[in-house]
Specification:
Blueprint lengths: L1 E9 L3 H19 L2 E6 L4 H7 L5 H8 L3 E6 L14 H12 L3 E7 L12 H4 L4 E7 L9 E4 L2 E4 L5 H17 L3 E6 L5 H14 L6 E6 H10 L6 E4 L1 H13 L10 E3 L5 E3 L18 H14 L3 H16 L2 E2 L9 E2 L2 H10 L5
Parallel strand pairs: 1-2, 1-3, 3-12, 5-10, 8-9, 8-10, 13-14
Antiparallel strand pairs: 4-5, 4-11, 6-7, 11-12
Helix pairs in contact: 1-10, 1-12, 6-7, 8-9, 10-11, 11-12
The chain binds 3-isopropylmalic acid and magnesium ion.
Length: 355
């Protein structure tokens, strides 16, 4: 197959981690007889420097014209004083909204090789950590009105039934393919938008009688993720709660550097990115962990290009790399071999097998 991939290297460690993912994709193309064309897209701080805009219309167009988008990371201290609407992160938010990718899938799965890297007690980790956070991505407080007037700042949190329903359906469908348990997370003891969220979820539940729906308040969920993560299978939640909980969930698996994500809307053109940030403190030092981006590329193959074998081959290669004892600094432990970002990519390619 021939696929066109829009590539956003972004800022900080973005370029170096994306480079490794592209090398892995090239190897997949060679082994499985595909052709991947890459189109470079400027977004984030680098686009501010170049065009004075974190996502110029021409760059968004390139993404919309592609079969899918692979993104490293954007942002950094350099642009901290840029006004809100022109911040690097705003480019990312405009990209997500422009692509209409309302459903963000963030797996929290522990690799057995990394059980020791989890900050949780062994007996908790041993019960298993393997759940998915389905995060609403283009609504809520991120996209409500933001304003500062004098010494008062306001951010509006708004959800419509239709917005809740479409992400709710993804939650139920995802649960249906797994253990058939869905946990809806909100703050309905305080927020109107959460009460609406809960009402819509329960209305939808009638259409999915095979899925068991439970409700959890977000503060309790934050606690349960560290107390007993094995209880979760699929969690569905609104934009900001999903942002916060997915960082927490990633950390209990060992490192945020390992976690990929997919974002999809009404079409198969998706946005694939690791869930971590641009880590400016280690940028250009060849020490970052590229696995979150490499696994995001695998998700692209599985969810947007219908290439499950190729996706599995990448995941197997990551597993074989870990089995062989290689670790980047973020997950380094005794008796392992420490490698840098580019060596990590090269070793994963070495373990990549065709059929
Ligand atoms: C994420 C990030 C982004 C978010 C930032 C960079 C805008 O934290 O993808 O989780 O908050 O969505
Ligand atoms: Mg985040």
């Amino acid at each position: 197959m021939v696929k066109n991939i829009a590539v956003i290297r972004g800022d900080g460690i973005g370029p170096e981690i994306v480079e490794q993912a592209l090398k892995v994709l090239d190897k997949v193309a060679e082994l499985y007889g595909h052709t991947f064309h890459y189109t470079d897209v400027d977004m984030g701080g680098c686009a501010i420097d170049k065009y004075g805009d974190p996502l110029p219309a021409s760059e968004l167009e390139k993404c919309l014209a592609s079969d899918s988008v692979l993104l490293g990371a954007v942002g950094g201290n350099k642009w901290n004083d840029v006004p809100g609407p022109m911040r690097p992160e705003k480019g990312l938010l405009r990209l997500r909204a422009g692509m209409g990718v309302y459903s963000n899938n963030r797996p929290a799965k522990i690799w057995h090789q990394l059980a020791d890297a989890s900050p949780l007690k062994k007996e908790i980790v041993e019960k298993g950590i393997d759940f998915i956070i389905v995060r609403e991505l283009i609504g809520g407080i991120y996209f409500g009105e933001h304003k500062t007037e004098g010494d008062v700042a306001t951010d509006v949190l708004k959800y419509s039934e239709a917005e809740i329903e479409r992400i709710g359906r993804i939650g139920f469908e995802t649960a249906r393919k797994r253990s058939k348990r869905l946990c809806s997370v909100e703050k309905s003891n305080v927020l109107d938008s959460s009460r609406l969220w809960k009402k819509v979820m329960h209305r939808l539940a009638e259409e999915y009688p095979d899925v068991e729906l439970s409700d959890m308040l977000v503060d309790n969920c934050a606690m349960q993720i560290v107390k007993n993560p094995a209880q979760f299978d699929v969690v569905v939640t609104e934009n900001m709660f999903g942002d916060i909980l997915s960082d927490e969930a990633s950390m209990i698996t060992g490192s945020i550097g390992m976690i990929p994500s997919s974002s999809l809307g009404a079409t198969t053109c998706g946005l694939y990115e690791p869930i971590h940030g641009s880590a400016p403190d280690i940028a250009g030092m060849d020490v970052a962990n590229p696995i979150g981006t490499i696994l995001s590329a695998a998700m692209m193959l599985r969810f947007s290009f219908d290439m499950p074998r190729e996706a599995q081959a990448i995941e197997n290669a990551v597993s074989a790399y870990l089995d062989a004892g290689y670790r980047t600094a973020d997950i380094m432990s005794e008796e392992m071999t420490q490698v840098g970002c580019s060596a990590c990519g090269a070793l994963i390619i070495k373990h990549l097998k065709g059929e």
